[in-house]
Amino acid sequence: MEHSLLVWLLPTLALVVGVVVGFALARLLPKAVPSSTQRQLDDIQQRFDTYQNEVVTHFNSTATLVSRLTQSYQDVQNHLADGANRLALDELTRQRLLASLHAEAAQPHRDRLTPPKDTEAPRDYATKAPDAPGMLDESYGLKR
Fold first, then answer.
1. Residues near 128 by Cβ (< 8 Å), separated by ≥ 6?
2. pLDDT, tens digit, for every residue of 73-113?
3. How many CA atoms lie within 13 A of 77 on its CB side?
4. CB-side exposure of 65: number of CA atoms within 13 Å?
5. pTM (whole model) above 0.90
6. CA triplet 26, 32, 36: central angle to 5 degrees?
7. What share of the chain is helix, strand, coil (3-state, %, to 5)?
8. What are the DSSP calls for 109-131, one per residue?
9. Which of 32, 100, 115, 131 measures 20 to 30 Å from 48, CA to CA?
């Protein structure tokens, strides 16, 4: 009996000591040195924050440049209108210049976006004579 008690008591005592030592090490070691997973997570978070800042900066710069472009376009339009008013020889020429200037400004040039003139749907079958069999006919292409 003493022998069986010793067989059970020694492993149980070793297990309890191992659990206590493991628990103590697990609580003390992570505080001393951060794990590599935590360092990777911090690095990824830092790169993500940097990327977000770069995106915001990029779109702010783009908005500023587009605003400048719009202002420059308006300045060119005003310059052309002033030139047409000052340099046109007669009233008819001045009116034609101003009308063409305002027509181009009101309606941008869109040659590539115009719809095709032909509104008929494309055919995905071969043309045939009215009395000839169609391509889906069982006797199509067979010699008689």
1. 134, 135
2. 999 888 888 887 787 778 887 788 778 777 665 555 555 66
3. 14
4. 6
5. no
6. 80
7. 70, 0, 30
8. --STTSPPS--SPPP-S----TT
9. 32
